[in-house]
Amino acid sequence: MKTQTKITALMLIMGLAVAVSSFASPLDGLQKQVDKFADSMAESLPMNSTIGLNWSDAYIGQLISAPPHLGVGVFAGVTTFDMDIIDELAAAMGATVDLDLNKFPMPAFGGDLRIGGFFLPFDVGIKFGMLSDLDLGDININYMLVGGDIRYALLKGNAVLPKISIGVGVNYLKGGVGATLNKGHRFEIGPDYIEVTDPSANFEWETTTLDFKAQISKSFAIITPYLGLGVTHGWSKAGYEIESDILYNGYPMTDTQAKQINNALSAQGVPTIDFDGSKGFSSIQSVNGWGFRAFGGFSINIVVIKIDLSGMYNFLDGNYGGTLGIRFQL
Questions:
Q1: Alpha-helix residue ranges (DSSP H) falling in 202-317
Q2: Which DSSP helix (H) or strand (E) runs through 41?
Q3: Is-cis flag, bond preceding 199, omega within 30?
Q4: Residue-wise DSSP of 213-231
Q5: How many CB atoms lie under 10 A from the CB of residue 13?
Q6: Res 161: pLDDT
Q7: For this UniProt entry, which residues form the secretion signal (predicted)?
Q8: Which residue in 249, 299, 321, 308 sits closest to 278, CA to CA?
Q9: 8-64: per-residue pLDDT in tens?
Q10: Other Cβ atoms closer than 10 A to 21
Q11: Distance separating the N- and C-terminal Cα atoms of the chain
């Protein structure tokens, strides 16, 4: 039977209701789903890591000028992730997800700073966002986004011509959400089983990305529309960790039994598990992936304040996103 307690979790730092079941499920099925989860994350994380520093101006001008060209602001946005992947992974962990969505919104937020170059027509930007060990009762959240880029102006723009730039950037994105689950679950492996009691489940993801982009913009009175293309490669990791006492066929699990489980998983061609003695286990998969996106939008310019609205679309997996930013810019 299902537990009467529903856990409201900010999965990927958003709302996700999870009901934990006491029924058994196959352990190899869980490992197949974490592999699928990591593959999908590898496609979705690179675009999410590029949120921030997407300013409307393709080039902001020189730092050594009057006035000096620089700016600082804050941003927030989301990119989507296929909801089916979350549903399937939750089911493999003995849970059901209570959200009627086709796409799951994966957020990003932080502050960014950009300064103009000198002598040559370039500008440089950095961004940073962090949420460390946010404790919401049964839920714990971690998030970090840090990155930087440099853009070179192929066309500096004037009253008639637009600004056109190309750029390269590096981003690091890491996140996780943990939930305390007050119901045990049994994972079957052949005729045997392992059982967890009062577990904590953590979902974790991480990516380092290299991003190449090209952008064009043109200011008209108080509006600056822009369009761009970006190609991103990400070195990503994603998976889960379960913290709990582990029983193997009703008794504390030994290292020998853990090796037997992994031998059985390897024979089925699915990812193996990292066991922490009889105190928990985890499975984090490393996957590389590409993203190819279009992005664009406009800013509303009010003297030295600019409000940016933008959207983006990943051609490779069909996911999309949007951002809102506000900044002070000279």
A1: 255-267
A2: helix 27-49
A3: no
A4: EEEEE--BTTEEEEEEEEE
A5: 20
A6: 96
A7: 1-24
A8: 249
A9: 333 443 434 444 444 578 899 989 998 888 888 888 899 999 999 999 999 999 999
A10: 17
A11: 62
DSSP-based helix, strand, coil % in the chain, nearest 5: 15, 65, 25
pTM for this structure? 0.88
* Cα torsion angle, 135, 139, 142, 143, sign: negative
Pairing verdict, β 305-314 and 280-302: antiparallel
99-158 pLDDT, tens per residue?
667 888 888 999 999 999 999 999 999 999 998 877 776 677 889 999 999 999 999 999
Quote the pLDDT of residue 98: 62
Q: Are 294 and 317 in contact (CB under 8 A)?
A: no
Q: Where on the phi/psi map is residue 269: left (φ > 0), alpha (ψ -120 to 50), or beta?
A: left
Residue type, 132: S
The torsion of the CA quartet 233, 235, 236, 237, rounded to 10 degrees, works out to 170
Q: How many residues are there in the chain? A: 330
Phi, psi of 68 (to 5 degrees): -65, 140
